[in-house]
Amino acid sequence: MYATPPDRQSAAPAATATATLAALAAAQFAVTLSTSIVNVALPAVRDGVGLSDAGMSWVVNAYGLAFGALLLLGGRAADLLGRRRVLTSGLALFAVAAVAAGLASAPWMLVTARTAQGVGAAAIAPAALSLVMRLHPPGPARARALGVWGAVSGAGGAAGVLLGGILTEGPGWPWVFHASGIGAAVVLAATVRLVPADPKEDTGSRPRLDVVGSLTVTSGLVALVYGLTAAGRVGWTDPLVLGSFGAAAVLLALFVRVERRRPAPLLPSRLLTRGAVGPANLVMALLGAVWVGLFFFLPLYQQQVLGVGSLEAGLSQLPLAAANMIGSGLAPVLARRLGPIRTLLAGLAVQAAGFLWLARIPSEGTFLVHLLGPVLLVGAGLGVAFVQLTGSAVGGVEPADAGLAGGLVNTTRQIGGAVGLAVLGTLAAARTAAASPDLPHTAALTEGYRGAFLLSAAVLGVGAALTPLLARRARPAPESVPATPPAPAALRPSNRTH
To answer: What pTM was computed for the model?
Structure first.
């Protein structure tokens, strides 16, 4: 018998850790992909199911509402019930709901299926992020893992637009949903096979889930997001919009009151005062606002102004996805050399420069001349900033709150995106309406898109101004991610020291 060579002994755990990270990253990719894959397919979906123009928006909004409003609940459920258990349950629901959406033959069936898909996504995102943090110890291993996480999060949005165009022009719009369901099923199988079960201390005796807090915050966020999405369609002074905002204010105030009296609240105050969690989530909300706006307005400009087809608009997202992946991979390296705060500032500044460039787009432009350069800047800056903010938002929390921290950072990004899209959409519509009547319609639309991109650059400037808050409260670690319990031995890098 011969002893196993040292290099082979270390290769197996490393390969296992890589495969596990790939499975968790694929779960996050599926969530972000489903946010954007429907965009270019909406006209075909409308004709296929018989949706009205108003109902067409709910194919997107039903998913976003359920996803954004239930993320906190999903994160806390992961902490209390077990992260792997919640992740696999969410993937199963997500896959079944996606296939059901593709089989829908009536508007109510489609909207119901998309709502269920959003519920599944709200369980997937925080549980997967929490597992990434638990299975990768602080230092280079965690920095690389967060780099991968940032790459797939940004690339998922761009890939969704591309895949949506390919499937819509190929097998047809139902496959936009079927592909998501099949992908989630594959990820579910990989998760069951590769992700280790929760330690006993994670699934033992735990406080009960805060049902009252969950209901009030979920209802409040649904009312808020509904009001914001409706405002872009019917106006900010519509009674329905004002009523939604009023209900949101009452419900969220009630949530704060309830949480102060609960022995085990859904959102403990200690979480927001721990390290840089609070400021990082605030800046992440601003980043989410411009992120969602970019994937909404860029394809519209290409299709409505430049006259390209859905497939060509989707293919043009590839440089954005590649730049995002490169930026996410460079983020840990830059953080070690420049420090986390300077790296975050650099990412925000590069994005702002790209949006300022986009604010100069012409009505008779081309992708290579007028879009490629700014898209590369925005993608790279987005990758760098997202990795740094995610690390700050989930680092420094107690292990028992890891899932909740993951849910919170995803919630702020989703709610920030809803607020940002409503504001940016209103501004773009107002600028288009105020354009000279002598201008062609495409030129008037371009004026609106320019205004949206200019405001996006200003939002990133506000985010940069808030970064000193992270510097004062973050730990002085190169990756800005404090320690969590070590990974199981099978997933622990061979050069790890204790």
So the answer is: 0.74
